[in-house]
Design brief:
492 residues; alpha/beta; seven-stranded mixed beta sheet; four-stranded antiparallel beta sheet; 17 strands; binds pyridoxal-5'-phosphate
Length: 492
């Protein structure tokens, strides 16, 4: 290949690497298949990056299939056109007029949408159940959060949606706010009234932006809720790698411009994206989009049947429950353990030992992820394994205690950006109570900050973090993950 250009003309029929024949409707996938076939056949002498030069005898198989977008899927000069075509097709599928493919997850999408939402110093109405990436998006953009809180269900200890009345109230109290930014579905799969939130935001003349990281499949079956844009949101980010069969890191950022400016969205997106996107990631997003467009209804139907069957089976077990009913994403399987007395972290360890790692576990809750890729037999096998482990781990039934992430009552002393850049010092955690946090501390998963830069460190927050740690949770992003010390803003 010369200059990284794409050579056309190889055999496109019946490529076993494209078992469902998606390439005809997926230009980036088509380009990836072509490029990697040439590499495989020894028809490339790339004098361009990446440095592995398509060889697998140096660092080995770990780079197999790696192809840059620029100079791999197409020449550096033409790859933008190819990407635009993939993104155009995705925009059309989701009813958007602006779409970008990200290779940096919903993390990047949240940050890009923050940078597109307002001006430094402006307020923004945001759920306090936000993922850490969105909080750091606010730091980057210099936006000042007006927090809205979800309701926590005492029966499950899990968060529900942010009420529309809370958003309307926040907008009434802060009429200069530039946008409303919510997460839906929540990490545990509860859903809110997005149409109501869109109406509230639009009545106040501002856009509704939704972190829909877990919801790339929504809207593709009549028994699934509509996706955020269809419900009236102006923009959404979703991780193709979470709900769809796409490469890790693959995400889509989608918008209906008007209340948000398309050129500003582009600038915001590019400001925090790599200049060397991995073509394999982008091609997998394109392929997942083509799959959804053609087979989405059938595959989502199977997903819904599978999750319904798993919920039914799990509920037969004494003491075991699942989230279900109105206000719960029907394809989410959130397992409630408290009534069995089994400890979620021990159950998770047994699942890992059985080769069945789950997305998340804390004392009272286990969240396996079921996607379009799961067959009914596969999920049934998981369900029976889980039940067997729970039976072995049974204990005294207990009341669920809401995890630290769901019960934060923030007291903001400084805007996050100001706190992020302030001089700070490290104190023993107990001495840090009452001081202003310089750092973001989030049990992960779910990655919701319990302490955010600029928030007062309360005894309740510290106790909740210590409880999460003692229960076997990973305390992420803290300078000291043992929580012996915390970083606080230096007093002036
Ligand atoms: C609600 C939410 N938003 C954003 C993200 C970040 O997504 P990604 O891992 O694709 O960057 C996550 C990750 O789990 C999340 O749960």
């Amino acid at each position: 290949m010369e200059g990284g250009g794409r050579v056309v003309g190889d055999d496109r029929t019946a490529d076993p690497r494209d078992p469902r024949g998606l390439r005809a409707d997926a230009p980036l996938l088509d380009a990836w298949l072509t490029f990697t076939a040439q590499a495989r056949d020894g028809r490339l002498t790339p004098m361009s990056v990446p440095g592995h030069k398509q060889r697998t005898d140096l660092t080995g198989a770990v780079t197999a299939g790696d192809a840059p977008l620029y100079g791999g899927l197409d020449s550096i000069k033409h790859a933008d056109l190819l990407l635009q075509e993939g993104e155009r097709r995705a925009a059309q599928l989701w009813g958007a007029d602006w779409c970008r493919f990200s290779v940096a997850g919903s993390t990047h999408g949240n940050q890009a949408l923050s940078l597109a939402a307002g001006q430094p110093g402006q307020q923004i109405v945001v759920t306090r159940l936000l993922h850490r990436s969105l909080l750091l998006g606010l730091v980057l953009a210099g936006l000042e959060p007006v927090w809205v809180l979800p309701e926590v269900d005492p029966a499950t200890g899990l968060p529900g949606p942010v009420p529309v009345s809370a958003v309307r109230g926040a907008l009434a109290r802060h009429p200069a706010a530039c946008a409303v930014f919510l997460g839906d579905p929540s990490y545990v799969g509860t859903t809110g009234d997005l149409a109501g939130h869109a109406a509230a935001a639009h009545d106040a003349g501002v856009p509704l932006i939704v972190d829909a990281a877990w919801a790339a499949h929504l809207g593709f079956h009549p028994d699934l809720p509509p996706h955020a844009l269809a419900a009236g949101a102006d923009a959404m980010v979703t991780s193709a790698h979470k709900a769809l069969p796409a490469y890790t890191q693959a995400a889509l950022v989608l918008a209906r411009s008007g209340r948000l400016d398309a050129a500003r969205l582009d600038r915001a997106f590019e400001a925090t994206h790599t200049t060397s996107p991995a073509g394999a990631i982008m091609a997998s997003t394109d392929a997942a989009r083509a799959l959804l467009a053609r087979d989405g209804k059938e595959l989502c139907g199977r997903l819904l049947r599978t999750v319904t069957a798993a919920r039914r089976r799990l509920r037969e077990v004494p003491g075991l429950d699942v989230l279900d009913g109105p206000g719960v994403e029907p394809a989410k399987l959130t397992v409630l353990l408290a009534g069995t007395g089994a400890h979620g972290i021990a159950v998770e360890a047994d699942l890992v030992a059985a080769g069945m790692p789950v997305e998340s576990a804390d004392r009272d809750t286990i969240i396996p992820i079921v996607t379009l890729a799961d067959g009914e037999a596969h999920v049934a096998r998981f369900t029976e394994t889980l039940i067997g482990i729970i039976e072995r781990r049974r204990g005294t039934p207990r009341r669920p205690v809401p995890a630290a992430a769901w019960t934060v009552v923030p007291e903001m002393a400084l805007p996050p950006r100001e706190a992020f850049f302030s001089p700070n010092e490290t104190l023993p955690a107990t001495a840090a109570v009452g001081r202003v946090s310089a750092e973001l501390v989030a049990p992960y998963p779910p990655g919701v900050p319990v302490l955010a830069p600029g928030e007062v460190i309360t005894a309740a927050a510290l106790d909740a973090l210590r409880a999460a740690h003692a229960d076997g949770g990973r305390i992420a992003y803290a300078a000291d993950p043992t929580l012996a010390t915390l970083q606080v803003i230096t007093r002036r």
